[in-house]
Amino acid sequence: MTKLLRGLAGLVGFLLFWEVADQVGLVSKTFVPPPSVVLVSLVNLLGDAQFVRDIVATMLAWLIAIAIAIAIAVPAGLLLGSIPVLRTTTAAIVEFLRPIPVAALVPLVLLVIGSGPEAKISLAVYASLWPIMFNTIYGMNEIDPVLMETARACGTSRFRILSSVALPQTAPFVFTGIRLSATIALIAVVSTEFLAGSEVGLGSYILLVSTGSTRFDLVFASTLVAGALGYVINEGLEQVGKRLFRWSSVDREAIA
């Protein structure tokens, strides 16, 4: 509760500073509308059926992307973490691909896939793979070797060891990666909608109202919605993680 109150106090302070800066003329009201105007526009937007459809389209693409990323990254992390030779062999490829920003891949994806939902989902999957995979690998390194050796000595297959021994032990680390990737995937989806000019989505709406228009209140309002969605996703997953892994004494710091 204390954390929530502090967060709300900080938000209120920021909004007050923003309002005062507008009212005294430190910034232009045309290009940076005061929060009193932006919040009214935000309420009106949430009553707009088309805008709600844009939010639903963005969140649906986000959900599909994060599910695909988990399905790929967790098994890949378990394999790379359990087979040192494979991890060494693929290290150069992984380190080459990981730093490539999503924005740089947008033209290529548009040429290959097109500007439909597949484009933003593919780029969101690409962007969100890495935190999950690297946290899984890190978790594998933290497993007590005795557990793995005992399972092997009992004749347990590699698949059974990874699914029954490794995965439960690495679960807190995997979940941390998922929490990180969830917000990254949302950023990737909205950014792709904006850069690729998607037909529907939060990013496409921001592009629409920011092009050839002076309705910067709508730009700020829709941007606030994107920020609020990211906050809710991160905070929600953090609370779920605390409940699911209350038993764990592992320091689950995020591995970037």
Structural summary, described in words:
This protein has 256 residues and is mainly alpha-helical. The chain has a single domain (49-244), classed as MetI-like fold. It has 10 helices and no strands. The longest helix has 39 residues, at 158-196. It is elongated and about 75 Å long. 33% of the residues are buried. Mean pLDDT is 85; it is low at 251-256.
Contiguous low-pLDDT stretches (5 residues minimum) are 251-256
Number of strands: 0
Helix proportion:
over 70%
Strand content is under 5%
Q: How does the helix and strand content classify structurally?
A: mainly alpha
Q: What's the CATH architecture name?
A: Orthogonal Bundle
Nearest-integer average pLDDT: 85
Tally the helices.
10
Q: Which overall shape is indicated by the principal axes computed on the Cα atoms?
A: elongated
Radius of gyration: 22 Å
CATH class category label: Mainly Alpha
SSE order: HHHHHHHHHH
Number of domains: 1
Q: Kindly, what is the distance between the CA atoms of the first and last residues, rounded to a whole number of angstroms?
A: 29 Å
Quaternary structure type: single chain
CATH topology: MetI-like fold
Reported for the largest beta sheet, the result is: none
CATH superfamily label = MetI-like
Domain ABC transmembrane type-1: 55-237
Protein name: Nitrate ABC transporter permease
Subcellular location: Cell membrane
Keywords: Cell membrane, Membrane, Transmembrane, Transmembrane helix, Transport
